[in-house]
Amino acid sequence: QEPSSKRVKTLRKSVASIANLISPGKRHFIKRLICTLNQQNTGAAGSTPSSGSTPGKRSNSGSVTKNRRSKLWCETFDHRGVEEAELKRQETIFELYQGECDLVDDLRMAKQTYRDSMVTLKMLTEDEVTRIFGKLDCLLPLHENLLQHLEAERTSDGKCDAIGHVFLSWFPTLTPYNEYCANQADAKGTLDAVVNKEARVRDFLQRCLESPFSRKLDLWSYLDLPRTRLVKYPLLLKNVLKATPSDHPDAVQLEKALTMVNDVITRVDDLTGERQSRFVLSKLDFLDDKQKCPELEESRALICSGQLKSSRGTKLHVFLFDLVLVLARNVTRNDKSYQVYRRPIPLSHLIIEGDEGGRMSGSFRGGILSGDKAKYAFRVRSDELGLSYTLIAADEHDRKQWVNSITEATAKFQSRRGSS
């Protein structure tokens, strides 16, 4: 591990370089930022807790400049006399707790070092701040609250007897996640646009990325952490439940919490998919009205998207919605990002060739495609609309992913239509 003094000097130099981006009148802000980050770094430097600290309790000034290490419950508390099964249970609970500590630190990093700094430096408009950072202010208190309740459950010997009831009370408070996650498509698009347009923003974010406090994570990585944490709760709770005896009172509570968080995630996914679908649709540029179809406006979820090529080698960005497949090309025109390439194919009419069974016509295999192109190709067509598109993936894995996704999407559509 680096000596503390060396790390502080490196951090001071890295953050001081950010000061070059701003006018002398705002240097006091950078000095304050340097001081804050240096204090955080110093607090994380020592491996031995101060005499007044309580093992397992966190300081209010959490540090994100530290090199995070995997710390076990048995390394933090006296585990002599603890049975192996109970030790494993405490380890799973402590892992969950530590992850929550890290998330709170990261949310503070996103809020204070990135958002507040960029606002003070007037790098973003008020609208851009709202669109990029969304409900970030609402998420931080939620997770701080969870930490407080988890710490309150810890007894003097470091054990947590039960945590299921904590999550049963906490999960219903996660409604801000609906808007935060649903806003991510617009947030990412806005951030990318600002970075591409503003050299000052690019320079600021690059300097932050190269500074020790970022841990080599860019701004978007921090903004996406709440979503990744949310979808991880089922696995974390399952691990705790697996280590909990079936006759333990917490087992029932954990089961209920698992059901509850899965409902929360389903709701967030539905809203996110719908908002992402609308965002992508707003970025489509149609050459003529023939390219428009009712299924585009009725789509509620973007299943997947990515780069493919046409049989002529044209680079395409393909979007698979829950109701329609769209082929487009990257453009920059009137705030649009994609120009629709050909008529979309509704899933109600779509047929795919090139699945695992290799069901392709002879003309497809031996026509204009040959060699590697034929290996990574598949065809989508609609006999009713007289449409047929040959698409080429980058490799076999990519081809299988597309074929499987389209096959599953069409099967789900047919199932929904059959049950209605």
Account of the 3D structure:
The structure is a single chain. The protein is α+β, with helices and mostly antiparallel strands. The chain folds into two domains: 4-44 and 60-279, Dbl homology (DH) domain (Dbl Homology Domain, Chain A); 287-419, Pleckstrin-homology domain (PH domain)/Phosphotyrosine-binding domain (PTB) (PH-domain like), CATH 2.30.29. The protein has 17 helices and nine strands. Strands 1, 2, 3, 4, 5, 6, 7, 8 and 9 form a nine-stranded mixed sheet that branches. A hairpin with a 4-residue loop joins strand 8 (377-382) and strand 9 (387-392). It is globular. It starts with a helix and ends with a helix.
Write a concise keyword list for the protein shown above.
single chain, 420 residues, Dbl Homology Domain, Chain A, 2 domains, 12% strand
Task: Compute the CA-based radius of gyration.
Answer: 26 Å
Outline, from the CA principal axes? globular
CATH topology of the largest domain: Dbl Homology Domain, Chain A
* CATH H level, superfamily name of the largest domain: Dbl homology (DH) domain
Biased composition (Low complexity): 42-56
Protein name: DH domain-containing protein
Pfam families: RhoGEF, SOS1_NGEF_PH
GO cellular component, one term: cytoplasm
Note the topology.
Layout lengths: L3 H15 L8 H19 L27 H4 L7 H37 L5 H8 L2 H17 L11 H7 L5 H7 L1 H14 L1 H12 L8 H12 L2 H10 L6 H34 L1 E2 L8 H5 L3 E9 L4 E7 L2 E10 L2 E5 L4 E2 L4 E3 L8 H5 L5 H4 L1 E6 L4 E6 L3 H24 L1
Parallel strand pairs: 1-5
Antiparallel strand pairs: 2-3, 2-9, 3-4, 4-5, 4-6, 7-8, 8-9
Helix pairs in contact: 1-2, 1-10, 4-6, 4-11, 4-12, 5-9, 7-13, 8-13, 9-10, 12-13
